[in-house]
Design goal:
185 residues; 4 helices; alpha+beta
Length: 185
């Protein structure tokens, strides 16, 4: 077994510990990927993305929550969370009404602010919506010099906050889509 295979094995173990902190059932797809078994409705996925450096590796958790909007307009948008300003921003003018609505949800902004986040992104393509959460807690770090490996544990309240954020965002998006559809008719 080479050194990198051993590191990947330890990262896989850290990811399995991380996955157990969430209340939804996930099935292991490969060494560094877990997904919910459902193919319809809302779906969860947790995986480690690997950043290789010369003498280190960082495995970042990427938590994805995907859901489908019934009878949604065929549009595409991408929003990102700005942790410094504690607000959502849009890459362009698509969905600017929804950005404003999401920023009005203080419960969502407070939950997002309660976890150190590297990246949060909400994308819509047709009727498929994906929320991608990349928290700093939950990562696995390995360095060759000095020889250490470290799992940055996600606290139980942080895991609960991430789950709650996803469900609240789904509810807010569904409500806004329904309101926009009602305004058009």
């Amino acid at each position: 077994m080479n050194i990198h295979e051993n590191v990947e094995k330890r990262a896989a173990h850290a990811l399995s510990l991380l996955v157990r902190q969430f209340s939804f059932p996930l099935v292991q797809q490969d060494r560094l990927t877990y997904r919910s078994g459902e193919q319809t409705g809302s779906r969860w996925g947790i995986r480690y993305t690997r950043a290789k450096k010369w003498i280190s590796r960082v495995y970042r958790p990427e938590i994805a929550y995907m859901f489908t909007l019934p009878d949604a307009a065929d549009e595409t948008y991408r929003f990102s969370w700005n942790p410094g300003k504690k607000q959502w921003k849009s890459a362009d003018d698509h969905g600017s009404r929804l950005v404003g609505r999401l920023n009005e949800h203080r419960d969502i902004t407070q939950l997002l602010a309660s976890v150190d986040m590297e990246k949060v992104e909400l994308t819509k393509n047709g009727n498929e919506v994906t929320l991608t959460l990349i928290p700093i807690p939950g990562c696995f770090i390995w360095t060759l010099i000095p020889p250490i490996h470290y799992f940055v544990r996600l606290k139980p309240e942080e895991a609960a906050a991430l789950t709650d954020v996803a469900l609240r965002i789904e509810h807010a998006v569904l409500r806004e889509e329904s309101a926009m559809k009602g305004a058009v008719q």
